[in-house]
Amino acid sequence: MARQDPAFQRLKRFPKAREGGFALWFAVAVIPIAMLAGAATDLRRWDAARVMVQDAADGAVLAAARSYALSPTSDHAARLADAQAAADGAMQSASAEVAALVKGLSWRVEINETTREVVLHADGRTPLAFGGLLGAVPADAFLAAANDYLVRQDWDEGFATAIHLSVDLRTGAVQVRCAGHPPAVQLNAGSGRWSAVPAEGPALGLIPDVDYPAVRGLLRRGDAIMLYTDGLVETRNRDIALGIDRLLGQAERELRGGFDSGGIRRLIETLGSRNDDRALLVVHRR
């Protein structure tokens, strides 16, 4: 009868062995664990890079829209050239990290005189950001126009969320419209409490011919209203409703003494995910 190799016998006993088993199994498992950790790190880096590039593209399209709207000439070609220069300048002034990520890409601004849509393309093909010129459409039609634009693009990203605020600076009357975005929050100066504005509507780019109804309100003296990006209230391991509740509580604490930049900066730093965009806009009626 042939004898089995001693190494082979030890290998057969290995799964049933108890002495030193944890260390042995851990030694075997550490390779895939390390691979998963590396993949997670790469994913976080990619996500942070995507956010930085998108922020830069958003800034560039806003710069282009502003340049076109405020151009002293009525010639479309001249205004478009100025808008292109503004977008190029905005991208060039972005951070060194963004400059490295987009090195070699070219940016092209496209402006439709009829619809007043402003689009920023990368390498002349991929639309990275879009906007509209102020006053191009009435406030009650802005989200519907943005939705129709995205539906026509058959956009790879699938959808976008947005929130639109219209304020009458004379009376303080406000209208809030929402497209799948976390709600605006409003401060009642009398009570000192912040509360969510319950505007609702589907995200942009999913359904054609959508109407976005307004929630109407009033900003009295001392009142304020806040818009913010979803990165301020949303994380991978927490429900967004809990994030909004935390925002309301933190706003009451950090902004109780006023709207100086220090309180707003602390609010941004203490909320949300550092791997997502975190920004907010506060409109305060004095």
CATH-level-4 superfamily name of the largest domain: PPM-type phosphatase domain
Quaternary assembly: single chain
Quick check: average pLDDT?
78
Helix content: 40-55%
Helix segment count? 7
Look up the CATH topology of the largest domain: Phosphatase 2c, domain 1
Structural class: alpha+beta
What would CATH call the class of the largest domain? Alpha Beta
Number of domains: 2
Terminal CA distance reads 98 Å
At a glance:
By secondary structure, the chain is α+β, with helices and mostly antiparallel strands. The chain has two domains: 20-136; 161-286, 4-Layer Sandwich (Phosphatase 2c, domain 1). It has helices at residues 6-13, 21-70, 76-92, 96-101, 142-153, 240-254, 261-270; strands spanning 107-111, 117-122, 126-132, 162-167, 173-179, 185-188, 193-196, 215-218, 224-228, 280-284.
Give a verbal description of the structure.
The structure is a single chain. The protein is of the alpha+beta class. The chain folds into two domains: 20-136; 161-286, PPM-type phosphatase domain (Phosphatase 2c, domain 1). Helix content is 41%, strand content 19%. Strand 2 and strand 3 (126-132) form a beta hairpin. The longest helix has 50 residues, at 21-70.
